[in-house]
Every structure is written in structure tokens, then in C-alpha cells.
Design goal:
- The chain is an alpha/beta fold.
- It folds into 2 domains: about 280 residues, FAD/NAD(P)-binding domain, CATH 3.50.50; about 100 residues, no CATH class.
- About 30% of the residues lie in helices and about 20% in strands.
- It has a 7-stranded mixed beta sheet.
- Helix 1 links the parallel strand 1 and strand 2.
- Helix 1 runs parallel beside helix 12, helix 3 packs antiparallel against helix 7 and helix 9 packs across helix 10.
- About 40% of the residues are buried.
Amino acid sequence: MKYLILGAGPTGLSFACYLIKKGITDFLVLEKESEAGGLCRSKEVDGSAFDIGGGHFLDVRRPKVDEFLFEYLPEDEWNVFDRDSRISVNGNMIGHPFESNIWQFPIDDQVEYLKSIAQAGCNTGAEMPQKFTDWITWKLGKKIASDYMLPYNQKMFEENLDNLGTYWLEKLPDVSFEDTLRSCLEHHAYGKQPGHARFLYPKKYGYGEVWLRMAESLKDKIIYNTKVESIDVENKIVNDRYTADVIINTVPWTSIKNISVNDENVYSNIKKLSYSTVVTEYHQENMDTEAHWIYYPDKKLDYHRILVRHNFCEGSRGYWTETNLERYHEKPGNIWFTNEYAYPLNTIDKQEAIGYILKVMQKFNIYGLGRWGEWQHYNSDVVVERAMNFAESLISGGVK
């Protein structure tokens, strides 16, 4: 076929559906599971939707993405929410992001945080450090680093944070002492709004519904229960059976047992790619909060985040936790799901490793796309946009 798409998660589905919109039907999608959706799949648990891959929502900041997805799950089938996310710190519950809501702490704590921020390296002109833990302290100050950012990231990613690079941390908001002080004086959050400040979630379903509908529109263009076991790169043959002019890979490179290419550096760079595994677990009791999700840096708790589903999923009750598999302790009788590939880790040499892999593959018309194809921590709205744009570039001949 013309295009062979590996994986029927949000990236692969969006790429395939965009081809259809452009009148192109000469393609096939391979999916290892029995249904589409990838990390954004939903299951029915206790009478309502449970998003097994954790907290996934549709951001409103990309109108073209929303309009594209509304073709499959119409706009009137979504609710829109103003994000209410919080952080549980030392017995206090404050709004997110942390530095904009310090005013919600007791006054003595506010003073300590303000002093710490004023002394942060980024505010005193100190040279930017290279190690992850040092960078966090330089950026946010010692108190926010020790009370929140360092323990939270250790719980979510891995204990030794200095295995991570700092190249991806520039997206953190600038901690202006003046804005933080003003927010404490006026009891109002200043600064840039975080992602998902407003978000969409289906009225009657889990987030997985939109991907199921996209898959249904593709009909027999998806082959399920077919794991990608091998890629003969030079001949563009997958699983010794499927071949195409162009291969779009959206599955983790490390999950493919045999990638045949005459370049030893490809293999060594694939081995450098790391990821974390997350367990989501259902709890049936409702929480006394209006928050949609809550972050927990406390190392005494296994989980790092709670999604309060009864506050955004109509007709449901309870909540679910997200826990790194290395910290998870199974509770008898609880309902839980393991997501082996949850987050690509931004290790020190990841950018160079994935860059080399993608450069070699592109020579053979094999392209990595999305969270796992590009090994980047992209949200679902981002991968949909990237899939649409990349499909358009390929069709128009813009990709060289």
C-alpha cells in the first residue's frame, strides 16, 4: 500500500482519518490491541467510564484539532470545564500551578516561600546549572523544589532525577518574585495559565469514545491484534508481510523486537530510550472536593496524582489514582490497569538518540510520529495536530 501506519492510538488514527479527508484510501493501520485508542482508551468500571491510561482531556487551545475531532464526536456531545487542579502539600491544598497560588498557604509559609523564590538562582543572576535537581532549585527556589517539584518528579518518573536532562524544563513558567508577591498581597493568581486551563470531556462516555468513533470510520483499514514485531527498514517490510511506500511509526521503538537496518548506531540509540510504566487504580468512594485532579508529592503515598472522575465524568462516582509501577502495591479486590508505555523519559541523551534514529529512518521513508514515534511527552491534542500537519506535508510533497 501507499501508507502503512503502525499503531491505532490518537496519532495513528488522526493520520489515517486525515488521509481519508484528502481522498486517500491506499493505506492500512496495524494495532496490537483488540480496540483502538492507545493510552486514551476507556473501559466501563462500576457503571461508568474509566480512562485506563490516566488523565487525558481535550484542550481547547487548538481549535483546528477540536473541529477535526468534532467530526467524529460532535461538539454537543462534550462538556467544557474550567480546570480546577490542586496540589496537596504539607497538609495544605492549594491551586495549581504552585508558584501562582502560594497566597493560599498560611502567612508564615508564604513568607518562607517568597524568601526562597527571591533567592532562587534565576532571580539572582546565578549561572544556570546542568543537573536536573540543581536546575529545579535554581529555577524555583529551595523550598518549592524540596516540598513539591523534586519529590513529585521522583514519584512520577524515577528516583534518580539527575538521569534526566534539563532541555525540556524551559516550559516551566518563569517564577517572577514580583508577580508571586503581588499574588500573595492580592490573593489572586498571576502568570501564564497552565495547559488544560479549559478542557473538553465527553458527556456520556470516557475520553476513549472519540478514538473508537474515528476507528469505526476507518472500518477495515485497521487490522487489530497485530503487534509490530519486525521492520525490515531498507525494504520497508513489517512483520515479513506488510510493505508500503511510506511507513508511519507511532508505536514505541523499544517495543519492536527486530529492526533490521545496516547501521549499528540505530540499535545503540534505541537502547538509550527510556520510559516509565504507570498503574491506574479505581476507588469507588467520592472525594469531598470540586477539583478535577490533585497532585501529591508526599513520598509516603504511592500514587502521584488523583483524577476525581465524579467531577468531570457525568453519572460516575469515585476517583482513580496514577502510580509509577515501581512504587505500586496491589490492593486485593481493587480494579487496576497497567500501562507499560506511559511516559517517555527525557533522559540526558534522549534528544540525540531519537534524533539519530529518526534521521536514519527518514532516508527509507519511515517516519516516527507522536508521543512514541518521536519519543516526546506530547498530549493528545498535540499529537492530533502533528499528525494532521505531517499528513498534509507528505501529501503535498513538503517532506524531504
